[in-house]
Write a structure and sequence with these properties.
The protein is globular, with a radius of gyration of 12 Å. Strands 1-2-3-4-6-5 form a six-stranded antiparallel β-sheet, with helices on one face. The chain starts with a helix and ends with a strand. It has two helices and six strands, in the order αββββαββ. A hairpin with a 2-residue loop joins strand 2 (about 30-35) and strand 3. About 20% of the residues lie in helices and about 35% in strands.
């Protein structure tokens, strides 16, 4: 499945970070970059964040899954309802 640009724009518009955020299209999906370093992926219109120890402490409870077959697991950020 291919992610929609509107999903990526929504995610970037709702993230506050201390660096410049951008998105680059990659094989129908998107990489999200902060200060030119990839920090997340949007695959199948779902947000996957690279796991870090700080992220684990911040999220407290989290689930991990690979964003695509063969990828390392990332934090899966659930859609707010």
């Amino acid at each position: 499945m291919v992610s929609k640009l509107s999903t990526v724009e929504f995610i970037i518009g709702n993230i506050s970070a201390s660096g410049k955020l951008s998105a680059k299209k990659m094989f129908g999906e998107y990489g999200i970059y902060c200060a030119e370093k990839m920090v997340a992926l949007v695959c199948d219109d779902r947000l996957f964040v690279k796991p870090t120890q700080g992220g684990k402490a911040f999220l407290n409870e989290y689930s991990e899954a690979p964003p695509y077959p063969g990828a390392k697991p990332c934090f899966v950020i659930p859609e707010e309802k």
